[in-house]
Please model this.
Amino acid sequence: MSDWVSATLRRAAAIGDRTMTMGGLAERASAGGLFRFARGLTGPLVGLVALCVFLSFSTDTFLSLRNILNVMDQITVLGVMAVGMTLVILIGGIDLSVGSALALSGMVLGYLDYTLQWPFGISIIVALVVSALCGLASGLMVTRLRMPTFITTLAMMSPPRSSPASICWSTAASSAGECASNASAKFRVAQKRKGEA
Model:
């Protein structure tokens, strides 16, 4: 097995050396090389560019500063998670519990900050520690118990996913809809207080 891995790494390094030199890049950009280089673009990227071009011509608000800031605000959390997932996938693993860990850490942050009135910095640190503990539990099951990553992270989806509901329902809400409504109302009150201060 180790011979196969070392041979594969040597081949990948040789290909990387050949294509990443200036001569290799110039060769790829020469007549016909540009088409071969562009052929490697994936479908979702081409679709995204086409969608952006269409929306920029069909509406006047798509390229506005407000819309761009709104999109950037919405993709920050997913972007950070995607970087971590990319590293996990590159080493041949998979983590299915990352969304549940995000929900748990967000609920812990909101509960400590709003309900218990902890300082915001300490609430952030505790929420990050909770997320790290979720990852540590999955990591120990994979490395020490030699469990497959798919099964481990699938099993780790449930505890972090049910914990935010327990935290939310413990604040006198009788249903998930009421919990979300209470959280939204509390957030609006907190924003109003910040605006008055």
